[in-house]
Amino acid sequence: MNVATTDLTRRFGRNVAVAGVTLDAGPGVFGLLGPNGAGKTSLLRMLATVIPPSSGRIRLLGRDPGVYGQRRQIRRRLGYVPQNLGFYPGFTVVEFVEYFALLKELPAAEVHRAVAVAVERVGLGDKATAKLRTLSGGMLRRVGIAQAIVNEPELLLLDEPTAGLDPAQRVAFRALLRDLGQQATVIVSTHLVEDVGAACTQVALMDQGKIVFHGTPDELVARGAGTTAAGDAPLERGYSAVLAEAGS
Amino acid sequence: MTSDHEVGPDRASARPGPAPRDVDLDRVWVGVAAEVWRRRPGPVERLAGRLLRSPGLARALVTTPSLLLAWVVATAVVLLAGALATLGTGTPYVALVAPAVAAAGIAYAYGPGVDPAWELSCSVAVSDRMVLLVRALTVFGLNAAFGLAASAASGVATAVTLGWLLPMTAVCALALATATVARSANVGVAAGVASWLIAILAGQAATGRISAAVTTSALWLPCLAFAGCCAAIVLYTTRIPKGSS
After folding, report:
1. pLDDT tens-digit profile of B198-223?
2. B55 to A108: CB separation less than 8 angstroms, yes or no
3. So where are chain A's domains?
4. Domain count, chain B
5. Do A88 and B117 touch (CB under 8 A)?
6. Which domain holds residue B118?
7. Which of A63, A102, A152 is the best mutation test for B, with the most CBs of B within 10 A?
8. CB within 8 Å of chain A, chain B residues 54-113
9. Is the ipTM of this complex over 0.90?
10. Which residues are within 8 A (CB) of B34 and not within 5 positions of it... i.e. 6 or more apart?
11. Fold for the domain defined by A1-77+155-216
């Protein structure tokens, strides 16, 4: 398993953001659904080694991120797009992607080609030398995705990656996700249930820091069948039904 | 995510016409793009890359907010004005101003408040602690060099010329520790500047001389000990706890 967590908990003061999550994920696209404040972002930040857990165990790519040397090896093979992508307004697209390629310790001889591949892969070839401050929100999102995939990660963590993308870009992005999921473990946190239906092979639903459902998108659809749960699409009804059950 | 309608003018012009069947145009284009888009690092970054043996660390160093040209020029101007004021009045203004200026530079060297991509930089192989260390040392070194030059130019006694270096170390360490713990550069600056102001005023109240804080050698050892404590706080704050994963 590329991701294995056991009883993972994260507290911020008295608030328990993630409450005893046990999760395994191998190659493929893994959707993480849940309402605001469910703990998705805190879970992703722990998997991205940005924050340590308060308790519990994590193993990523077969290594322990609590050990410096192993954490460094994980980070070389990790891609991460945070919910709020910070960027340097004066950098160009290429400079930004190259900056993170260097910080991920890509071999110097491979950096320029890897940057070109990543920028082309997200469809920003014609904006490669544009300053980030001149780009739209959707383009900035794609820049964030480019820096995440520049090292061809084995573990890719995306927090609300389709926010700000227009419908055509979202369709293209789902195709990219499916492509990346052939080799890597891709974990996507999203509010958009249709993204999960279109791209994910596995889905987990979080509520109040806990995983209340883990299965395939079809299994989530089945949970909503024959119920009066709210939703315009079968997946949305499954999502609502599971949340209603968890809350009752 | 690339589709034909997204192909830019540069790329379009790089495709003059039909190609032989055994040529992979995408591969060719990526090779061309990699060369066309290649960024040439400046001499400072190249030198830093050699010294640090890490192109990533060197790139992180040259993106330090308080090492950008505007900030460096502002620091030089403040210390130059201090040197001129010292020449005119005999009061060691450079020694009194330098620690506060350096503390601001240190607080704005690193952290979530000043580095837009800080969250991302916490997930990369080049350790954020190394970035912090390299940036803080470089900002400190540059400010110390500027301060020494301004101090020498102002013609004050040697004791005063060097007397501010240890207080500056302590004030910078406090600014760095506070900024790191509070995760706010502004809080770090406020702590550093306020502490230095209090030290100056306390020295003046005790001796009647405004320069007492930079001429009293009895303060040097406490300053070093205080800087050491602050450094320990920074190391503790930036650690990943063992056994947490």
Report:
1. 988 988 888 888 888 888 777 788 88
2. yes
3. 1-77+155-216, 83-152
4. 1
5. yes
6. 44-237
7. A102
8. 54-56, 59-60, 63
9. no
10. A112, A113, A115, A116
11. Rossmann fold (3.40.50)
